[in-house]
Amino acid sequence: MKIKFAQCALLLSLTLLQRLEAQAIKPGASEEKVPKSTAAQVSEDALGRGTPWGTVFGFIKAIERGKYDLAAEYLDSKLKPQERRELARQLGEVLNRKLSTDLDTLSKKAEGDLEDGHPNNLERVGVVESPSGNVDILLNRVQRKPEGLLWLFSPQTLGEVPQLYAGLEYLWIEKYLPNQLRTIRWFSIPLYRWLGFPLVLLLALGAAVIFSRILIKLFRHLLRRLGKEPDDRRLSTMMGPLRLLLLALLLNGASSLTISFFGRQFWSNAAITLTVIALAWLLIRFMDVVANLRIRRMQRLNRPGDTAVARLLNRFAKVAVAIAACLILLSFSGKDLTAVLTGLGLGGIAIAFAAQKTLENVFGGIMVVSDKPVEVGEVCRAGEFFGEVEDIGLRSTRIRTIDRTVVSIPNGQLATLSLENFSRRDRIWFHHTIALRCDTKADQLRYVLAEIRRLLYAHPKVDSSSARARFVRFGGSSLDVEIFAYVMTTDYTVFLAIQEDLLLHMMDIVETGGTSVALSAQTTYFVKDRGLNPDKGQEAINRVQDWRKNNQLPFPDFPRESIAQISDKMEYPARESAMRTRA
User: Fold this and answer.
1) CATH tag, 428-582
2) Angle at Cα 338 formed by Cα 336 and Cα 341, nearest 5°?
3) Measured between alpha carbons, how far is 136 from 187 in angstroms, rounded to an integer?
């Protein structure tokens, strides 16, 4: 079930509450410990100050709980307890509002990060911006008894805190709010921020909806200017990713509503994650729109092969975008991409062995698309299957058979088959054998051969250069005449009509010659044989004798000048044809 856009906002709000509740430490609870995976590398300290990560995490948690005396234990300062407490509070305000860093990048080792370019006893936490310039927040490793070596906020950093605190700017709205809304806090966050965040979130949702509709209209106008047929249906699918992208950008700005370092970091990471997801989603939808417009244009230009290539490239591009988005998200989460890519390489080898057939089909599809033995919309025979190609995909090719069923042939198998493409014929072969009765006279046979040749030469839809009619054999019960010609059409339905016309004319020729088609030798008919028509037979013989007397006997073939005279002289369709009447 699809989740509506407004429901996504509710889920984000609930996630924030869970995040803040998870950060809150109940009164009397012990300090949160460093993860077990680093426990062996951490000095024994109840406050977790054995690592840079533990010091920063423990200090900010103590500030959130309002325990400034406990937070003062993380400072390398010799001030009086009351002054150290106030200094810790000011440092907490500065870090919560201005610190730019990712807590997960801090070292969880007791010795710290030895390759950060600082002395071994110093660790850089992050940067705080101020009107006078950026200030590095540093930790100093000092020896304390009985705890041992501890990481504490350095005196150099503590000396900058009063000036940084004095330069903090508060939201303009705080000047106009009642004192209760500013002083009452829940999880160290003022009450007005708890009340204002849902309102800001709703405003962000409304702004995202409005701006996305405006952008869709701009895209539609742009497509109408670039192409003749905008794809409104596909373009509307970009509404969702556009709204998510705009919401992510607005949430990034709204993260300033929280003064908690953890809350600010959470919303910043959430905004980055949503931005990457929305951009990848939007790019995939946009590629679908562009690919669909390009496919329509190719279909208008009658280029079905390029259509299959466009579909295949679009699928590869979408997979590449999804992989790139995953790698970017892994990079933002602090994962080492070198290790990830190495793992992907090893995993890819394992997958390649486990999915040999799938990869074979993918590469087979690439070969089919690149070599173009068949294209979408063409009629072909692939092995035992005959039909029209409907789609060439990454894994298989779909063929619509004559029975109107759809056959999916794996591309790996299709690449090894002998494909017969019927749609690329420049003409269609007309090939038949007429079996005449054995008692047909030689001159009658000559008449039939000559008239069939004349028919083939005269027919406007027959290639006269390829036409021939030959007496080829004495059959067991017939005299066989082979007819060979090419019909000048690529449409098989049109070819059937022309073939029918030729065969009917040949029947007339056989009948006019006074002979007939031989009956099958395997069938016995108990009927009175009426024999041959002596009158028509004598007429055919007399005509051949006239040809012979006038030296016009068309054997072994018609003279070239005779072929030129009779070529394309036959009326087709015939005068009595309904097609002719309609024309």
Assistant:
1) 3.30.70.100
2) 110
3) 27
